[in-house]
Design a protein that fits this description.
- By secondary structure, the chain is α+β, with helices and mostly antiparallel strands.
- The chain has two domains: 40 residues, no CATH class; 36 residues, no CATH class.
- The chain has a two-stranded parallel sheet.
- Strand 1, helix 1 and strand 2 form a beta-alpha-beta unit.
- The longest helix has 13 residues.
- The chain is elongated.
Length: 78
């Protein structure tokens, strides 16, 4: 099996990466990390600090939608 892991540096992603590397059934692992994802999808990336700051901003000024996507969360900080 070949595996692509997005966010391999984060808590969940690093766990997945380690398990894939140890599994005999996994032939190849490709890890896509934040710098590449930020370059390709700048409005879709969130960090823990960004999420925390956006939660505070949403408490001060409720967002226009009830369900927020990454780009909406990032927009709260602008």
């Amino acid at each position: 099996m070949n595996v692509i892991v997005f966010g391999a540096i984060g808590m969940a992603g690093s766990g997945v990466l380690m398990e894939c590397l140890e599994d005999q059934g996994v032939a190849r692992v490709v890890a896509v990390v934040r710098p590449l994802l930020e370059a390709l999808f700048p409005d879709s990336m969130l960090t823990s600090p960004t999420l925390g700051q956006a939660m505070i901003a949403a408490a001060r000024r409720p967002p226009p939608k009830k369900v927020l996507e990454a780009r909406d969360i990032n927009a709260l900080l602008r």
